[in-house]
Amino acid sequence: MGFSHQWTVGSAPRPYRYGGASGPTLLDPAIKAPMSAAAEAVSSALGLVGLVSFDFVLAEGVPYLLEVNPRPGATLDVFDDQSGVLFSAHVAACRDEALSLGSLPQQGGRAAGILYADGGSLIPTMAEWPSWTADRPMPGTRIPRHRPVATVFAAGETATAAELNCRHRLEELASMLYGRALETEQNNAKALRPRPERVSAGGQAR
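RESULT FIELD:
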């Protein structure tokens, strides 16, 4: 269905952690051809059906197949449309039913990224989340440091522009979440702070 570019979000315990993906990515025919051939050969040999994602690493212009995921991958958000045409086709294929992909017009690029709690453990308190987020945690959920918080989506004229917009939104969401968390913490600290006692004219504290 297409090619996407992944990026990493490194942290001390996980330097190569998945950060997100953007697409569609245009590849040189010399790179695209062997990747397509490998995907088709593996799918045929294993009898795979439906959507399958193939992860490659590109080293000095040579693609190396790392793993095969016989299921819709994280990049489904990059290629599918609002009505879920691709996912519906995946379900139909797995049921051995007739399927129709219809048309999936690609207007510019799209990207999806993961926000991690790298700023410290977090309990999100936002009542309303931006429309460009998904996989939001339940209210009151405590998210340990370095664990996923939510998914962020963005679009752009190109895949590169979409990725840049997505990274900006990731920073924006992190600022919103940690800013609100700090505000809540400060308010709680004020509520728990002992109030000074008032002394009446008779000398009794109250």
